[in-house]
Specification:
Homotetramer. There is one protein chain. It is elongated and about 85 Å long. The model has no long low-confidence stretch (mean pLDDT 96). The strands form two sheets. An eleven-stranded mixed β-sheet has the order 1-9-18-17-16-15-14-13-10-11-12, sandwiched between helices. The protein has a seven-stranded parallel β-sheet with strand order 4-3-2-5-6-7-8. Helix 5 links the parallel strand 5 and strand 6. It has 18 helices and 18 strands. The chain folds into two domains: 221 residues, YjeF N-terminal domain (Rossmann fold, 3-Layer(aba) Sandwich); 264 residues, UDP-N-acetylmuramoyl-L-alanine:D-glutamate ligase (3-Layer(aba) Sandwich). It is an alpha/beta fold and 510 residues long. Bound molecules: ligand NPW, adenosine-5'-diphosphate (ADP) and potassium ion.
Length: 510
């Protein structure tokens, strides 16, 4: 699913108004009445106090429509106008008059802290103060109002985006943003919902189709693409009856040091489970028996005792995954450098191999085109330097990717796959995956896909999705805490099957 910027959303709005020959007021009515329908469906007329806080722009206009429909259906509604500006939008004004015509109680104007209403824990709030039009810091009393609403800790539904969130930078005051239980957003999800600094402002996101112009939505490239099952199914390549293990390549996983051989076990198994035809683990001598015992399907080549000092392969690998438990000893960096100069196979670079490159950036010059690099936030910082906020991080990561022509998998709750100006946001996975070794599994999985001939961007998107999906399957059975990296490996097969499970089958099971 595409993600648009605020200005693209506005354009979609305008195009729809022209192509459908409807007014902006009708579009507002259509959008907001869908939110009302959702509420009505869930509340079924329940008489809990509902506080609707409306700004003075179109987001406020949406709130006024919701208020009017709630009043018309007999709900217990109080409407407030948060008067942060005299510059009221025209559709706000029309809906303001419409509400006044039918409501017994006129909307209450909030102009300062003295006007704040009491909101109780058992009430409900509709947050329609700011939408995607926020473009400058809030005046202090509006920030206070947002804090006042948050303090009530009652169920809060934000319209389009939690008020106080920009769609292009982090908030000025981390507490000056509505904490929503659910955000009902129009047509397409917004980027802020998936970034670590801003994703936490809403527990749930519901995207509603308000019928914006299909052609425009289809033809306009978004600023990012959200990756769910629908997006990855077309990436999957099925197997031919007469394929053989040579068809799926012979990959090599390189890494490990004394006390960190487990990372290589996980990565090697993961590569095989993803479908690599053959896998070799290249480890220091101390890892030999461990690997032969735990992954009998793999071949093992060893180097000196406890750390890698040389990387000499006696075959041409189809793909390379390097870095798990590798260490950053000078000798290892040297071996890595020599290897990079020789190697032509597609690569995944993780963990200590990233740290080696951060220590010696010249290594980056030797990467094959579209090498996949999989940093967690600390490793990313070593590569691209510090960032102001998540948006700045994305810009810097894009610059880095363009400079070195590499694919970055920026790992996190929603891992970002970045290639030059393309951004893919993975939407599978869960907090149970914040556990030792889950990154090693990802490296093995991506290497397994490269080995089978998937191109690097497809491999990164599909592999990251399947990694999260395998984690989700475990969490459904065992919860978050008991999830360990080895379980992710064991659920790779199920994650593949899940790609093709029909919704009915899913429902029957649950
Ligand atoms: N296709 C769609 O997406 C549809 C969208 N719709 C709805 O429209 C919403 C966007 O509406 P919007 O453009 O009127 O902006 P909104 O967020 O209401 O802000 C109001 C105005 O406040 C101002 N302002 C900004 N920052 C400020 C500050 N700190 N302190 C004071 N003032 C500040 C700024 O105006 P300015 O003063 O800069 O001229 C801004 O324009 C969208 O989220 C969705 O709910 C639906 O109705 C239909 C379909
Ligand atoms: N809260 C989370 N939600 C979803 N996925 C997560 C979460 N935390 C971590 N992960 C995933 O787990 C993996 C952790 O990788 P990494 O930090 O390299 O672990 P390790 O070094 O222990 O192998 C990444 O793929 C990341 O996206
Ligand atoms: K809002």
């Amino acid at each position: 699913m595409k993600i648009f910027s605020a200005s693209q959303m506005r354009m979609a709005d305008e195009v729809t108004i022209k192509s459908e020959k409807i007014s902006s007021l009708e579009l507002m009515e259509r959008a907001a009445s869908q939110i009302f329908n959702l509420l009505h469906h869930r509340l079924q007329g329940a008489q809990i106090p509902i506080h609707v806080f409306c700004g003075i722009g179109n987001n406020g206009g949406d709130g006024l429509v919701i208020s009017r429909l709630l009043v018309e259906h007999g709900y217990n509604v109080k409407t407030y106008i948060v008067n942060f500006s005299e510059n009221r939008s025209k559709d706000f004004l029309v809906n303001y008059d419409r509400l006044k015509e039918i409501a017994k109680e006129w909307p209450f104007q909030i102009k300062s802290e003295e006007d704040f209403p009491t909101v109780q824990y058992q009430d409900m709030v509709i947050d329609s103060i700011f939408g995607i039009g926020l473009n400058r810091p809030l005046v202090p009393w509006v920030t206070q109002l947002i804090k006042h609403i948050n303090n009530a800790r009652c169920f809060t539904l934000s319209v389009d985006i939690p008020s106080g969130l920009y769609d292009y930078k982090k908030p000025d005051d981390a507490e000056g943003v509505i904490f929503a239980d659910v955000t009902v957003t129009f047509q397409l999800p917004k980027l802020v919902f998936f970034l670590p600094q801003t994703g936490g402002y809403t527990k749930e996101v519901e995207v509603i189709d308000i019928g914006l112009d299909r052609n425009f939505l289809h033809q306009t490239p978004g600023i990012a693409e959200l990756i769910n099952k629908n997006e990855v199914v077309p990436l999957y390549r099925s197997r031919h009856k007469y394929s053989h293990k040579g068809t799926f390549g012979h990959c090599v996983l390189i890494g490990g040091s004394y006390g960190k051989i487990g990372s290589m076990v996980l990565a090697t198994k993961a590569a095989l489970k993803m479908g690599a035809g053959l896998a070799t683990a290249y480890v220091p001598e101390c890892g030999y028996e461990v690997l032969q015992t735990t992954v009998p399907e793999a071949m093992v080549i060893t180097d000196s005792d406890d750390e890698l000092e040389e990387i000499n392969l006696d075959f041409e690998p189809s793909a390379v995954g390097i870095g798990m438990g590798l260490g950053t000893d000078e000798k290892t960096i040297k071996a890595f450098e020599e290897f990079l100069k020789e190697n032509k196979a597609p690569m995944v670079i993780d963990a200590d191999a990233i740290n080696c490159m951060a220590k010696k950036p010249e290594l980056l010059e030797h990467l094959p085109l579209q090498t996949i690099i999989t940093p967690h936030p600390k490793e990313l910082e070593r590569l691209i330097g510090k960032w102001e906020d998540d948006f700045d991080k994305i810009r810097k990561a894009q610059e880095f990717s363009a400079k070195y022509r590499c694919v970055l998998v920026v790992k996190g709750a929603n891992s970002l796959i970045i290639y030059e100006d393309q951004i893919y946001i993975n939407n599978s996975g869960n907090p149970g995956m914040a556990t030792a070794g889950s990154g090693d599994v990802l490296t093995g999985m991506l290497t397994g896909l490269l080995s089978q001939g998937y191109d690097p961007i497809r491999a990164a998107v599909l592999g990251t999705y399947l990694h999260g999906s395998a984690g989700d399957l475990i969490a459904q059975k065992n919860g978050f805490e008991a999830l360990i990296a080895g379980d992710i490996v064991n659920n790779i097969g199920q994650a593949y099957l899940e790609l093709f499970r029909q919704p009915q089958q899913q429902e029957q099971k649950s």
